[in-house]
Write a structure and sequence with these properties.
This protein is mostly beta strands. It is built from 4 helices and 44 strands. The strands form 5 sheets. Strands 1-2-5-8-11-14-17-20-23-26-29-32-35-39 form a 14-stranded parallel β-sheet, with no helix packed on it. A 13-stranded parallel β-sheet has the order 3-6-9-12-15-18-21-24-27-30-33-36-40, with no helix packed on it.
Length: 503
């Protein structure tokens, strides 16, 4: 009996030792490789004997490996097909101060392909590279998860409509890219779009601290775009954060529908956060939609729950197509836009499509614009203001504006509850019109607590000419907003908070 116990104990110790060895093997044998223009793919990839091509490194590196790519121009298409693991990603990096350049000039590949492809490659990081002169898309992520594109400089993508964008993430139904990051990149000078999320049903993407500019947007592409899918729910873009990006001078191609920032509309989607972005120049609007009602890309109780907050828009307003939906626009600044907020309905929509009986959003209603500044210093050439097109239910349960600041440089108009037969505008700068507008449709007031001011830019902003829209002490917007979080009682020992749009 004793001998059996010893044998069992010894076997268990050996078994645990083998498991420990196998568990540490990935770390113990993780390698660092090198690629340089002076190298050879028949070398061992060490610092003294680097490889020649990035593709050879991509075919060789395994989980936990790091590949350092030296400066120089690498004229080749690169396909990444190997994956790292959680805690042991595969890293390809170069010195961003003297980067390796992946150059598509003279490289031939399919018009619907891309210069850099991540095909089913997960836990992969690309950092510091300069990517130029792709015939079509510069970088494409297909069906990978937990990937990171960091500090890249991506430009001059293609020469035709097929140049859909610089960085595109997308998939077929069933294996969507997810849980990935695009951060610190410069994405610019494309005839198509900049950064595009195209059917990222897996969700959980962070697009942060990028500079996206001078992407013309031909064929209806945008500076930054999140959308596209199907009406059945097979693709539902979800949980996407677009935060602290500088987005400017995009959508200059002259086509209808091009925008600096466009999220939603073409697919069932939910839980987008747009925060802290600085957007100006170019054409189009800022769009944040829950789905296109006319094409039935909306599902009650599933779609939307989007938030846009603390963004700065110059010359660009907010547009929503289809019908009002559970989207909130909080604490943003819109300066010198052609319009501030436009709700466009679409023809032939049944009236009962306006409303979501499953939504329980509290006192904010289905779509809410709160604590925003809608400011115009100069006279607009067209209708400027807050207006709704089409047969839209603009009661309290549908659209709600609260505690905003409006300033007109000329003809600030409100159109509310119009029908498809024509637009009915009233200039709210006329005596009594603004008050009558706020008092309309009792008890479901369309706008409460908002201010119409005649103060100019110097009385409101620290630096209007430099786009410094911090408020001066003389701005009527100071302390004019309303709280988004309140205690259930005024007592100092209150322990319960009510958070606006906690979902």
């Amino acid at each position: 009996m004793t001998r059996i116990q010893k044998t069992t104990k010894t076997s268990a110790i050996l078994f645990c030792a083998v498991l420990l060895f196998l568990g540490l093997a990935g770390q113990a044998f993780a390698a660092t490789y090198y690629v340089a223009k002076t190298g050879s793919d028949s070398a061992d990839g060490s610092q003294g004997s680097p490889w020649l091509t990035i593709q050879h490194a991509a075919d060789t590196a395994t989980a936990g490996d790091t590949v350092n790519v030296a400066a120089g121009e690498y004229h080749a298409q690169v396909a990444f097909t190997k994956s790292g693991t959680a805690g042991h990603p595969i890293i390809f990096q170069t010195d961003p101060a003297d980067p390796a350049i992946i150059d598509g000039e003279g490289v031939s590949f399919s018009i619907w392909s891309s210069l850099i492809r991540l095909d089913n490659a997960s836990y992969l990081t690309l950092s510091g590279f300069k990517v130029i002169n792709s015939l079509t898309t510069s970088i494409q992520i297909n069906n990978g998860t937990h990937d990171q594109l960091l500090n890249l400089d991506v430009s001059n993508s293609g020469t035709s409509y097929a140049a859909t964008g610089q960085i595109v993430a997308g998939s077929d139904i069933g294996s969507p890219p997810a849980f990935s990051v695009i951060s610190g990149c410069k994405v610019h000078d494309s005839p198509g779009g900049g950064i595009t999320m195209w059917g990222v049903a897996g969700g959980y993407w962070l697009i942060e601290n990028n500079e996206v500019y001078n992407n013309a947007g031909y064929a209806n592409w945008d500076g930054v775009q999140v959308g596209v899918g199907d009406a059945t729910g097979g693709i539902q873009d979800n949980h996407v954060i677009v935060k602290n990006n500088l987005i400017y001078n995009n959508a200059t191609g002259g086509g209808e529908g091009q925008d600096n920032l466009d999220l939603g509309a073409h697919a069932i989607n939910h839980h987008f956060l747009v925060e802290g972005n600085d957007i100006y120049g170019g054409n189009g609007s800022f769009k944040l939609n829950s789905g296109n009602a006319f094409e039935h890309h909306y599902r009650a109780g599933v779609s939307s729950f989007h938030i846009a907050r603390f963004n700065r828009f110059t010359g660009i307003g907010y547009s929503c197509y289809g019908f009002p939906s559970p989207t909130v626009i909080y604490n943003n600044t819109f300066v010198d836009a052609y319009h501030t907020f436009a709700q466009f309905s679409q023809e032939d929509l049944p009236h009962d499509s306006y409303g979501d009986s499953t939504y329980t959003g509290g006192d904010t209603g289905r779509q809410n614009l709160k604590n925003n500044i809608f400011f115009q210093e100069s006279t607009s050439g067209g209708y400027y203001g807050v207006f709704v097109y089409g047969d839209v239910d603009v009661t309290y349960s549908s659209v709600r504006l609260q505690h905003n600041l409006y300033r007109s440089g000329g003809n600030l108009n409100m159109a509310w509850g119009t029908d498809n037969a024509g637009y009915k505008y009233k200039e709210i700068t006329l005596p009594g019109v603004f008050q009558a507008y706020q008092n309309s449709s009792a008890p479901d007031y369309p706008d409460t607590g908002s201010i119409l001011t005649t103060t100019d830019a110097s009385q409101n902003f620290v630096g209007y000419a430099t786009k410094d829209y911090h408020l001066t002490s003389t701005s009527p917007a100071i302390d004019a907003g309303m709280a988004l979080t309140t205690a259930t009682s005024s007592a100092t020992d209150s322990t319960t908070l009510v958070v606006d749009r906690a979902s």
